[in-house]
Amino acid sequence: MPTFVYMTRCDGCGQCVDICPSDIMHIDTTVRRAYNIEPNMCWECYSCVKACPHNAIDVRGYADFAPLGHSVRVRRDEEKGIVAWRIMFRNGKKDMTLIAPITTKPWGQHIPKLKEVDAPSKEMRDSQLLYNEPKYLRFDEGGLHTLEAAGLKMKQGVFY
Amino acid sequence: MAYQTIIEDDIDILVVGAGLGGTGAAFEARYWGKDKKIVIAEKANIHRSGAVAQGLYAINCYMGTRFGENKPEDHVRYARIDLMGMVREDLLFDMARHVDSTVHQFEEWGLPIMRNPKTGAYQREGRWQIMIHGESYKPIVAEAAKKSADKVYNRICVTHLLMDESRPNRVAGAIGFNVRTGNCHVFKAKAVIVAAGGASNIFKPRSVGEGAGRVWYAPWSSGSAYGLLIGAGAKMTQMENRIVLARFKDGYGPVGAYFLHLKTYTQNGYGEEYESKWWPQLQQMVGKEYLDPDSWHLTHRPIPTCLRNHALISEVNAGRGPIHMVTMEAFQDPHLEEIGWHNFLGMTVGQAVLWAATDVDPKNENPELTTSEPYVMGSHATGCGAWCSGPEDVSPPEYFWGYNRMTTVEGLFGAGDAVGGTPHAFSSGSFTEGRLAAKAACKYIDDGKAEGIRVSDEQINRRRAEIYKPLEHYRIYRNEITAGTVNPNYITPRQGLDRLQKLMDEYCGGVSTNYMTNEKLLNIGLKKLKYLEEDLEKLGAENIHELLRAWELKHRHLTSEAVMHHTLFRKETRWPGYYYRGDYLKLDDENWHVLTVSRRDPETGEYTMEKAPCYHLVED
Ligand SMILES: Cc1cc2nc3c(=O)[nH]c(=O)nc-3n(C[C@H](O)[C@H](O)[C@H](O)COP(=O)(O)OP(=O)(O)OC[C@H]3O[C@@H](n4cnc5c(N)ncnc54)[C@H](O)[C@@H]3O)c2cc1C
Ligand code: SF4
Ligand code: SF4
Predict the structure, then answer these.
(1) What is B246-371's CATH topology?
(2) Which one of B48, B77, B115, B301 is the catalytic residue?
(3) DSSP string over A83-130
(4) pLDDT tens digits, residue range B184-227?
(5) For A3-101, CATH number?
(6) What is this structure's pTM?
């Protein structure tokens, strides 16, 4: 099945249950550990794999078309701001590690709290502008594009 | 039943579904509505929900006006030709003129956007796409939505919109249930922004076993945006315009970066270029205006996505498959090889899993491509969705009724996949549409348009009873049988989904008919959809998880019915390669250079179809 859980690593913390967008990681009432209740609704999105604090979740490619004996593992580190992948081929010939940044800033700190920024003026409200525009639009003196400024018209009919 | 009813009252703006559109709406709403009560109701967890749950490796809609690259009208022309003329150019122009500000914000928030070391501009993948390290794209935009919203309700499956009882055709909130506790949640709101995403799993997927979840669009894209809006009587547009994707076989890994950045290309099973030989025949179907290879070098017009699909499908049908992506040249460069793999890990890990499992090293062999089952959505290379008002300064009268991105139901707005006629918005454009809808929704409330809303207990109780009916039905009939899933009184949500997929596939132009349908087939399909509708009243859900699946199925069913009606209405083949009307195999500009608009009467379930004019942006 797409995701599965190693018996000896899972402690039933429920992080995977909390994050799975498909609502398919559930805690088994007998063994008190997580498992995938509906493998054919799993996207192999790895959200649960990344969220598990004990690396207890792994993925085995879909039985319809993926032969056994491969591995794609991931480790996501919010502190360091990176995600690290390891891909191992079935025939053992390829073993790749790939690392990518996941953010350039400390988490959430550079997202403004809009309740605290200055309220929009009436002029702004009556215009077509959005928050922080036109500044964010171009970071220069240019304004919002309009039909008039661009010499354009909306016309009915067949145009290509 | 012991489930509580929890009422959240006095909401100003309710955001239903917080994917890219919904997070954009929640974030921006706070700016225009400082003291407004903003609430999110999301079926999963906003940190990893929607189509971007696993991340993206590219932002596919960015003008780059700041770097002197493109103007909004350029993008409108591109989307227009890609969709064979059928787009809402007012909405597109509006999205395109704002989208850069969204992307610049993302970068400030910490989303890693790659830069071109030579020019200092964002690294382009193609004319409209820029490359990102987007593993945490969704957690980052979720953070922004959380900072603005008063309350985020995760794990609420919204089943219906609530309607105002003091004034017809005005929205009053939404209702649903908590996927964990089972409790019923009522949201009374002055304005609602629906951003509950597109629809996968409506047509039978190519993989029907364990791999049925490896659909191209996420398996949790349940068509709820459409189900909710159609259920409330909102008009829909272009619902026939489903999309078929040419992707790596089985894993459905993305090909954008491969074509555009890695410069890989396709060939048939015999190693030959095949596309161009289909152009003369195709030109007869669609006309020279839409396909004119001789003038390509002059106009730089792209070949519409559907037409390239047509060439691929035709070549395979001619017995010269499979189609291969030629990767062996590009992948000799270790840097490009790395990008190729990162591209999968960033947005379709399953493709990397599959290649690892089948020892496909694109350096040594050219992987197979295929065309997917159809999907119904409105933000990728297609434009299904609600018929919405455009902005005041751009839209002609037929496209404007007061508030930007407002549907034909008062106070009910849309964003992302929910809005029709706006293809090529993608992640950044969907977020931008959410921002536009939020500003308009605040104005709607400030203008006093939401005064005196009334929702009776009767309405709430009626919906509540409907919500739990599948659980109730199961409880009553389960013990009539010994064990198992075969019961004469109910079907399970999975059984219902299998039936829906099979009939859409066979009657509405899915993979097993090579995307072919006609009037006769569609009429049979509509009849079968009605039977299914009756059986959906008899769904049996064993537990709350199955109740979630039951409601997803009901939303998928409503979506499908609209798709079937629209496909029947448009008597031409507008998008060869997406689907074919066998009884009208040609594009017909004389009669069908129009947008299709439908409305389902919420009382009777009857459909009415109409044509709406197609306006184009042209030079003065
Ligand atoms: C494989 C893939 C690759 C893509 N590649 C790119 C790319 O490279 N670049 C790019 O820019 N875009 C890309 N896209 C497109 C982009 O992801 C979408 O355009 C965008 O996410 C659409 O936004 P949305 O808000 O309409 O839907 P979504 O982001 O899907 O959000 C819908 C939300 O609604 C919630 N919801 C659904 N039903 C209910 C309900 N009943 N009640 C409550 N909540 C509900 C969902 O859980 C979800 O959170 C890609 C998409 C996919 C699937
Ligand atoms: S991989 Fe994604 S869909 Fe599958 S169980 Fe994990 S979180 Fe859910
Ligand atoms: S997150 Fe990991 S440890 Fe926690 S329940 Fe899930 S599998 Fe077990």
Answers:
(1) Flavocytochrome C3; Chain A, domain 1 (3.90.700)
(2) B301
(3) EEEEEE-TTSS-EEEEEEES-SSSTTTTS--TTTSPPPPHHHHHSS--
(4) 999 999 999 999 999 999 999 999 999 999 999 999 999 999 99
(5) 3.30.70.20
(6) 0.98
